[in-house]
Design a protein that fits this description.
This protein is mainly alpha-helical and about 280 residues long. The chain contains 13 helices and no strands. The longest helix has about 35 residues. The radius of gyration is 23 Å and the shape is globular. Its main location: membrane. This is ABC transporter permease. One of its GO terms (cellular component) is plasma membrane.
């Protein structure tokens, strides 16, 4: 029989092996995509590529169809981030001042889009805008992206507001400051980390969204992920891999900014699952 020490060592090796296998399983598709984006061949061949080249990136930036989708995605993500940060911050400040029971109910309502599949949200918006033909395609996309971005800005701002003592605002009011001055000089600066983190999440999810965007695009206004899906159906080549690498690089840059601003452990481990 194995001694307790040997059993612990064996268990540690098993856990290490499982973690390593999981990491390889998760990272291998990314590694393959990155290598194939630099494939020097003119066709999609076996992995690994025999030679490397940047021609697929050159074709990516020369492709008017994908470039138009990227421009739309970027403008849409910026507009979504600005509006979601402004609306989410205002909503979070209002929610933080409510009674605990009302706060829980209102927060649950605002966070409900997180548990509803994006396909359902996109289809519902498509039906709504089909009946009430009120907005142009870009505004429809913006409305859809706001629905999925607002929960993140509200949640992260609430996290930032949680650590602010009420006595600070009361002290400012007692010293002659009005409510507006208290908010802009005390509350907003102290909550800026949560607001920034929420804005970064909003930008990232807006850039990567497919489920909602695919229902709200038209032939002239479409996002980059939707353009990639369309290209995969009509003309599959490694330009798609190059676009995927660009999106991964952008997402990685956002994660670095998020880590610098608030810390990934706090934003992901505590900010989403624990108040």
């Amino acid at each position: 029989m194995l001694s307790r020490r040997n059993a612990d060592v064996l268990l540690a090796w098993c856990v290490t092996g499982i973690v390593a296998a999981t990491a390889i399983f998760l990272l291998f598709p990314v590694i393959v995509t990155v290598f194939m984006a630099f494939d020097g061949r003119d066709f999609m061949g076996p992995f690994p590529p025999p030679s490397l080249s940047i021609k697929w990136f050159e074709q990516l930036f020369d492709n008017a169809y994908l470039w138009s989708g990227f421009q739309t995605s970027l403008m849409l993500a910026i507009a979504t981030t600005v509006l979601a940060a402004a609306i989410g911050t205002s909503a979070a400040v209002a929610i933080s001042g409510m009674s605990p029971r009302s706060r829980d109910v209102i927060t649950t309502i605002f966070l409900s889009p997180l548990v509803i599949p994006g396909v359902i949200i996109g289809f519902a918006l498509l039906m709504f805008f089909s009946v009430f033909d009120l907005l142009p395609p870009f505004a429809r996309l913006l409305a859809g992206h706001l629905i999925i971005a607002l929960p993140y800005t509200i949640r992260m701002t609430l996290i930032g507001l949680t650590g602010i003592s009420e006595t600070l605002g009361e002290a400012a009011l007692s010293l002659g400051a009005n409510a507006r001055q208290t908010f802009f000089t005390i509350t907003l600066p102290l909550a800026k980390s949560g607001i920034t983190a929420g804005a970064i999440f909003a930008f990232a999810f807006s850039m990567d969204d497919v489920a909602i965007s695919i229902f709200l695009c038209d032939y002239n206004t479409y996002t980059l992920p939707v353009a990639l899906i369309s290209l995969m159906r009509s003309h599959l080549d490694l330009t798609i891999a190059a676009a995927a690498v660009v999106l991964m690089g952008l997402t990685f840059a956002l994660l670095v900014v998020l880590d610098r601003v608030i810390g990934l452990e706090r934003a992901i481990g505590q900010g989403i699952y624990r108040a």
